[in-house]
Description:
mainly alpha; 79% helix; globular
Amino acid sequence: MANYLLAALVPILWGSTYAAVSLFLHDLSPFWVAVWRALPAGLLLLLLKPGRPPLPWSKMTLLSVFNIAAFFPLLFIAAYRLPGSVAGTLGATLPLQLMLMQWLVEGKQPQLKMLLLALVGFSGIVMILNPSADIDPIGAAAALAATALVARASLWLKDWPVTDIFRLTAWQLTLGGLLLVPLAFIVEGAPKPITTHELPGLIWVSLLNSSFAYWAFSRSIKKIGADSMAMISMLNPVAAVTLGIFLVGEVLGPYQWLGIAMVMMSLVLMVYSKQRTQRKLALKPAQ
Length: 287
């Protein structure tokens, strides 16, 4: 259960990104916010535990591009152009995208019960969505593309042998941040000076949403599997909406509260199903 609780912290922290942008970072370029989120976090982790990457450079670079250098700009474009509930809802297509990608890439057909739970959870997320929100097509495309990158990277991480998750996180963030610097200069020019108002938001998204959350995300894929981690990611929009209520003044209606209940129900059933399967496998040799 402890592994699932740690995994649940990841989408909750990532769901806070939208509130951090609204409260602190709305005046900064999304590309430079991506740099400030990734590079300081990666360098800090490398300072704490220096050493070579735990994967070959080719694989390390692929993970860094998909999880950081390409993902972060798309994520922040979505965060700047969409309400948090909308961006989180589109990001919560991860379980469905992951199942589709496993089917197409690995030939693994999804389990019916997991597919049904994913659909129930996503239906709840759609109910959370504010129906009056205007959906920006560029922001929506960015959110869906970012989610597809995470799905592909999750499958690599599941299959590649990695034992040092801490150093993996450090190198992902460092390489991804370095790759983002020239992109930010090309797209946005030189960075604006960071003000004292923006500093708390950058510290939050760099230290907690990146250093800690990416370590917990990679560890969770190894411990509970990519499918379970994808299901738990549906807490992202729940966290985004809940923080929107308390920090940004958003209001939820009864259908949105019902949607939150559906998401939580699907997650509880998923965890129960996984643990039941693991108990059966553990007892099987003794029979």
